[in-house]
Amino acid sequence: MFLPTKSAACNALSKFLPDAGLEYAVQRNYDNGPDTKASVSKLSPWIRIRLLPEWEVVTAVLEQHSPADASKFIDEVCWRTYWKGWLQMRPSVWQNYLNERAALLEDFRSHVGYQRAIEGRTGIECFDSWNQELLDHNYLHNHARMWYASIWIHTLKLPWQLGADWFLRHLLDGDPASNTLSWRWVAGLQTRGKTYLARPDNIRKYTSGRFRVEESLSTEALELDEAPPPKPMSLPDLTHPQDGLKLGLLLTEEDLSAAEWLPEQNTPSSMAKYFPTDHYEALDICPEVVEFRRKALGNSTGAGTFETPRELVEWAKREQLDGIITAEPTIGHWPEILKLLKAELAAENIELFTARHWWDQTLFPHATKGFFRFKKAIPKVLEKLAVQPA
Ligand SMILES: Cc1cc2nc3c(=O)[nH]c(=O)nc-3n(C[C@H](O)[C@H](O)[C@H](O)COP(=O)(O)OP(=O)(O)OC[C@H]3O[C@@H](n4cnc5c(N)ncnc54)[C@H](O)[C@@H]3O)c2cc1C
């Protein structure tokens, strides 16, 4: 269903474009099941790795719809940027999640309720069906994700961290920021005092009656508490490579669009690709997700793909590079990998530089409080897009 190529991503975008205006705003909450025409774009697996970057999607949408008609869809695309900016300025939230996840996975190894949930044997028909859909398609509609997470936390009373881990391992679009912070939001930890409680009548309505929901779902949200999130740090200033350096470009599965925008700012003489298989194994990401990302990287322009720091260093030496430039990684597994690469390259006097796309540079600093404040900055990026208006 989701092929790891640019042409598949562009085809899916073209097919969705006519519905990206008011139709999306009206229909987007309906989840009529995996075998019917979707009310949403289903572009997230490609957007996640920026095989389809946000600016390309928004430009295409504005070529067919007025900004007013497309505003709901553009807001949703920008929710992703908001979550990513929010976490980028509060990396300890991700680190805490990783620590808690590791401890809970140990504690819940033989927990019956947890095993039933991930095997789709809870007896709650809709939940078990979404679990199967997640395993079969590696994708769920947003509303199904909300209901699933709510039942996981508030009805089954399982730790949100294990639910977030289950999603991250199976979603093609699995993303440290969007996933962790959405689970925190359903749990009532992200927006204080606001939990998300799945209601049977809401599920019936927005699945067009596919589920009867006769099982009893919790009518009271669990009250979880923890210390408030840290204040946002400012984004680091990035060092630009000095003129005259011989640079190589490093492309990763985190931002496949970098092959297009990085050379505009710098002139790399060669390009390498790096796929961190070890890190996917450490997080126990399912083979479908790993293969989608590995193939998407492999199908992008450029030479072979490296998997160890040594291979990258040897390549940089062969190419007689002074430095390597790559897209700044967002919070997740890549900042750690980059630290490792930086140290190994530094031992050979090769510098590693990172660059931030103007989309992130413009929007991330606004993710200090809630989305509604952040949203006021969206016109700043829309102005920069070269759009032939609808
Ligand atoms: C518990 C939970 C976990 C989630 N985990 C992830 C995740 O790991 N990765 C992920 O990309 N999204 C996640 N989301 C957000 C959202 O569900 C998906 O982005 C969306 O369902 C993807 O489907 P689509 O491409 O058809 O979305 P559309 O509705 O067509 O939206 C277009 C694009 O906007 C972005 N987007 C839309 N809604 C959101 C949102 N609420 N938050 C962030 N970005 C959004 C996505 O990039 C999406 O592809 C999660 C939501 C919940 C409630």
Q: Explain this structure to me?
A:
The chain is mainly alpha-helical. It has 3 domains: 6-86 and 363-384, Serine Threonine Protein Phosphatase 5, Tetratricopeptide repeat, CATH 1.25.40; 93-206, DNA Cyclobutane Dipyrimidine Photolyase, subunit A, domain 3; 247-355, HUPs (Rossmann fold, 3-Layer(aba) Sandwich). The protein is 51% helix and 6% strand. The protein has helices at 6-16, 22-27, 44-48, 54-64, 71-88, 91-107, 112-118, 125-137, 142-155, 160-170, 176-187, 200-206, 258-265, 277-282, 287-299, 309-318, 334-346, 358-363, 371-374, 378-384, and strands spanning 247-252, 270-274, 305-306, 323-327, 351-355. It has a 5-stranded parallel sheet with strand order 3-2-1-4-5. β1, α13 and β2 form a beta-alpha-beta unit. α8 packs across α9 (142-155) and α9 crosses α11 (176-187). It is globular and about 70 Å long. The model has no long low-confidence stretch (mean pLDDT 96). Residues 28, 40-44, 47-48, 76-77, 79-80, 83, 141-142, 145-146, 149, 167, 171, 173-175, 178-179, 182-183, 186 line the site of flavin-adenine dinucleotide.
